[in-house]
């Protein structure tokens, strides 16, 4: 399967070891004075180690590799004690990877490892439990805006605006955006907010053509935006969508495109992804006019 993992430039690496300490999954080790990925099986692709590198020797790439295995990670790090386990679980919570978090907690319970989960939030400052950057760019920081249900395994929800007024007192509807980022190139196909969701795959222009885009199309959906004409490496889009269908278990995909011919590339990419996936999910195609009118809507 193709997924996001880290790549280390050995020429740039100075052997400081900061990334090894930042990798709670135990995927990195210092060998002969250089940071080395010992197993991609342990790399969750969230990129916490990147922010620890002072020389920019680490980047996120997409490649064919084994799926991340949370149980294997827990088995590997559990001998290091509660402090390391809690650091790993906190790392998953910070990135809204609640499914992996719950799997790790369940693994500990089954293997008789007692944890004080209150320490994850109780012994750190609020600023220390904010989501970390997935790479060096603030625009790529993964955030889940959905309201969290109270439980030991949930992250603190990120506050967002609901309704506002301009200087003339005109009210605007609330945002229905559930996550960040939204550009398909920046999305981690294994992100927690994608799991079990209904995905809206929208053309870049569609939100500007329809006055009620959020309420009409986006409500209760995760979002990916793309332009098949201007974006580069659209093959990676097909690979990501395939991974979302198989590994993140998308329920449905709704493709919202403009009436211009080049926009049809979006539905073609979605169809190819579904054909390559192991799961067959419902796929809806919607075509919008340049003035925001829905011209057609059908399941394909």
Briefly summarize what is shown.
The strands form five sheets. A five-stranded mixed sheet has the order 10-9-11-12-13. A two-stranded antiparallel sheet has the order 1-4. A two-stranded antiparallel ribbon has the order 2-3. It is α/β, with parallel strands linked by helices and 300 residues long. About 10% of the residues have low confidence.
Write the layout of secondary structure elements.
Layout: E1 2-8, H1 18-22, E2 28-31, E3 34-37, E4 58-64, H2 70-77, H3 82-94, H4 98-110, H5 118-122, E5 143-144, E6 164-165, E7 171-172, E8 179-180, E9 198-203, H6 206-209, H7 213-218, E10 222-226, H8 234-246, E11 252-258, H9 265-276, E12 283-288, E13 294-299
Parallel strand pairs: 9-10, 9-11, 11-12
Antiparallel strand pairs: 1-4, 2-3, 5-8, 6-7, 12-13
Helix pairs in contact: 3-4, 8-9
């Amino acid at each position: 399967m193709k997924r996001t993992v880290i790549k280390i430039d050995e020429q740039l690496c100075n052997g400081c070891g900061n990334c090894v300490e930042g990798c709670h999954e135990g995927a990195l080790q210092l060998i002969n004075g250089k940071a080395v990925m010992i197993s991609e099986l342990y790399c969750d692709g969230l990129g916490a180690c990147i922010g620890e590198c002072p020389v920019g020797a680490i980047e996120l790439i997409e490649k064919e590799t084994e799926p991340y295995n949370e149980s294997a990670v827990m088995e590997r790090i559990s001998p290091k004690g509660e402090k390391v386990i809690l650091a790993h679980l906190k790392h998953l919570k910070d990135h809204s990877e609640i499914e992996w978090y719950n799997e790790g907690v369940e693994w500990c319970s089954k293997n008789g490892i007692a944890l004080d989960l209150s320490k994850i939030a109780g012994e750190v400052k609020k600023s220390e439990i904010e989501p970390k950057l997935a790479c060096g760019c603030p625009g790529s920081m993964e955030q889940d805006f959905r309201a969290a249900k109270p439980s030991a395994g949930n992250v603190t929800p990120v506050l967002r605006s609901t309704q506002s007024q301009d200087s003339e007192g005109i009210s605007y509807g609330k945002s229905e955006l559930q996550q960040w980022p939204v550009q398909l190139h920046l999305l981690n196909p294994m992100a927690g907010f994608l799991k079990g969701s209904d995905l809206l795959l929208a053309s870049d222009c569609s939100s500007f053509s329809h006055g009620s885009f959020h309420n009409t199309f986006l409500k209760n959906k995760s979002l990916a935006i793309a332009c098949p004409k201007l974006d580069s490496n659209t093959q990676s889009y097909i690979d990501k969508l395939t991974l979302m269908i198989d590994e993140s278990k998308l329920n449905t995909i709704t493709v919202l495109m403009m009436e211009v011919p080049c926009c049809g590339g979006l539905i073609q990419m979605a169809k190819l992804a579904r054909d390559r996936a192991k799961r067959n999910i419902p796929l809806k195609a919607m075509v919008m006019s340049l003035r925001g009118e829905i011209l057609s809507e059908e399941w394909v």
